[in-house]
């Protein structure tokens, strides 16, 4: 299991920087919110996932450690049920560009279907 060497929330609370193997990965609060690992967002199976919209201005209020394997992020929109394991944070960090493009495509499809 890969473990982050540091996790830092910036002063404006809109970016969480996670370091893995000497590389810093700045992750926006919006990105982390729309990719929350909670069942509320991801569902219990892929077809149950709920597309998160209008999270552009969400901030991270608090980062709470969960043992030696994860953190829980408390967002200012009240969401706080996602447990971000080290492996999930690593996945988000190293695939951020691809995942963000996939999210934007889903949003675009949703808006064009209205």
Summarize the structure in short.
With 114 residues, this protein is of the alpha+beta class.
Helix count equals 4
End-to-end separation in angstroms reads 43 Å
Number of strands: 6
What would CATH call the class?
A: Alpha Beta
Which regions contain 5 or more consecutive residues with pLDDT less than 50? none
* Protein structure class: alpha+beta
Q: What is the 3D form? A: globular
Largest sheet: 3 strands, antiparallel
Q: Order of strands side by side in the largest beta sheet?
A: 1-2-3
Number of domains: 1
List SSEs in N-to-C order. EEEHHEEEHH
What is the arithmetic mean of pLDDT?
Answer: 95
Give the strand content: 25-35%
CATH A-level architecture? 2-Layer Sandwich
- Kindly report the CATH topology: NE0471 N-terminal domain-like
Roughly what percent helix?
25-40%
């Amino acid at each position: 299991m890969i473990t982050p060497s540091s996790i830092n929330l910036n002063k404006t609370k809109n970016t969480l920087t996670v370091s893995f193997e000497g590389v810093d990965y700045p992750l926006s609060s919006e990105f982390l919110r729309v990719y929350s690992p909670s069942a509320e967002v991801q569902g219990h199976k892929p077809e149950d996932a709920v597309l998160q919209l209008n999270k552009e201005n969400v901030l991270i209020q608090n980062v709470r450690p969960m043992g030696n394997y994860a953190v829980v992020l408390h967002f200012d929109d009240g969401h706080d049920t996602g447990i971000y394991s080290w492996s999930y944070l690593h996945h988000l960090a190293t695939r951020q560009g691809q995942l963000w493009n996939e999210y934007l495509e889903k949003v675009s499809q949703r808006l064009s279907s209205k």
